[in-house]
Fold this protein.
Amino acid sequence: MLSKSPEITAGVFEVDHPLIECHLSALRSVNTTPLSFRSHVRRLATLLAYEATRDLAVEPTPVTTPLAETEGGKLTNRIGLIPILRAGLGMVDPVLDLIPTAEVWHLGLYRDEDTAQPVEYYSKLPPGRPVDVALVVDPMLATGGSMLAALETLEKWGVKQLKLLSIIASAEGIEIVEKAYPQAQIYVCKIDPVLNDVKYIVPGLGDAGDRIFNTLG
Ligand SMILES: O=P(O)(O)OC[C@H]1O[C@H](OP(=O)(O)OP(=O)(O)O)[C@H](O)[C@@H]1O
Ligand SMILES: O=c1cc[nH]c(=O)[nH]1
Ligand SMILES: [Mg+2]
């Protein structure tokens, strides 16, 4: 009999792994083309998702192999994959490859360039039918404003378990989100030390959405 209900620990997890280190370096580089930028985002999202899904509940399920009956496992809960548009879209396919049964619910938020405040422009969550576990994906967590706005929407929807996946977060953004949502699990590849005067993460990687979609101008 499988016994797979690992303990759920809230907090911030900076995932330390040689492959993350290498792909993140390539992602940061100003010389990385949009084509490789997208592929490094996908690889990093896969590695983050592997860590972030470690404690998902699994229930036993019978499997018939060509040779015998055996016992396998299947995910117990409804999993929602929540990309914050636009940049979060770059992390959807790799996570969906790992969890093909996940429901994808998009949240449209952009950061006003002058105020750095989040502006919501898309949300179509069906009232009364929240997922059990939300994996919120956005490569960048800078001031934390966009993530906080997304979490507020998901909390109102009724989601109980919140898992946030960002490739780079700023130290101050993470502190703000952790304080507001101490029950959330936050998975990041790297916590960078500062925001500059226009609230970009330094050293960071620039504007993730523009680099994914080749809209730097
Ligand atoms: O923590 P914050 O200070 O809120 O900043 C982070 C947000 O900014 C970026 O999105 P952006 O507003 O550039 O939109 P885009 O994905 O459409 O480019 C990023 O992908 C986050 O959503
Ligand atoms: O450094 C940052 C901050 C916000 N959004 C980004 O894409 N990058
Ligand atoms: Mg952007």
Q: What stands out?
A: The two ends are 57 Å apart (CA to CA). Residues 84-87, 109-111, 116, 118, 138-147, 173, 199, 207-209 surround PRP (ligand 1) (CB under 6 Å).
